[in-house]
Amino acid sequence: MKLKYNAPTTLTFSLIAVTVLLTDLYIMPGTIESLFTAEGSMTFMMDSIPAYVRMLTHVFGHAGWDHLLSNITLILLLGPILEEKYGSRPLTLMIVITALVNGLVNAFFFESSLMGASGVAFMMILMVSFANIQAGEFPISAVLVIGLYLFKEFLAIFRYDDVSQISHIVGSACGAFFGYRRTVSHRGSVPAAPGRPIAGGQQTIG
Predict the structure, then answer these.
(1) pLDDT of res. 169
(2) H or E, element range at 69
(3) Which of 25, 115, 136, 143 would suit a FRET pair with 59, their CA atoms being 20 to 30 Å apart?
(4) Alpha-carbon distance 47 to 30, whole Å?
(5) What is the pTM of this model?
(6) b/e 40-69 (16+ beta carbons within 10 angstroms → b)
(7) Which CATH number applies to 8-192?
């Protein structure tokens, strides 16, 4: 029996996030703050190319091991399922879009800076909820998962802490959009081929 790199996008994402935290903690302190944190509205400059780069890289930055593990555990659990269903390249694109949308929303509407992969994790949660949807049917289990997660995040908005619930909600919205486009909409128009998948200041952490 040999080990298999079965989910390239998921595993590579996780390895990068772990490497970034190790580098920040033990080799080059301040790496995450300077390279892996997206600006908020108070510091964002529209003509700054690095600011747009950090909108993408902020998903690899985490405040500590607890923050990292809470996100990576979900991503390692759900990512391989999505890669098997949709493919590695489409999942990579979904992660990039989710990161960019989260970064843009934070830069234009919120003062605090942003780091963390929870937006990606919530995107995956919503996408997996669509996995068993058939044409014309919507499983009650999917409704409960989506409803409970979103209800929890909306309630948490009114609680002051360092967690960006908006990042979770944006990630969920992206996951719902991708899930609908690639599952419900696609099944309704193109039959699936047998045996093939259907193609700084204050910081908040996600």
Answers:
(1) 84
(2) helix 65-86
(3) 143
(4) 23
(5) 0.81
(6) beebbeeeeeebbebbbbbbbbbbeeebbe
(7) 1.20.1540.10
Q: Which two tokens stand for residue 138?
A: 């919507």
Amino acid at 171: G
pLDDT digits (tens, 9 = 90+) for 88-134: 999 999 999 999 999 999 998 888 889 999 999 989 988 887 776 66
The per-residue b/e assignment along 112-124, b for 16 or more CB within 10 angstroms, e otherwise, is bbbbbbbbbbbbb
pLDDT in tens, 45-70: 888 899 999 999 999 999 999 999 98
How far, in Å, CA of 170 to CA of 162, rounded? Answer: 17
Amino acid sitting at position 103: G
Burial 73-93 (b: 16+ CB within 10 A, else e): ebbbebbbebbebbebebbbe
List the chain domain ranges.
Answer: 8-192
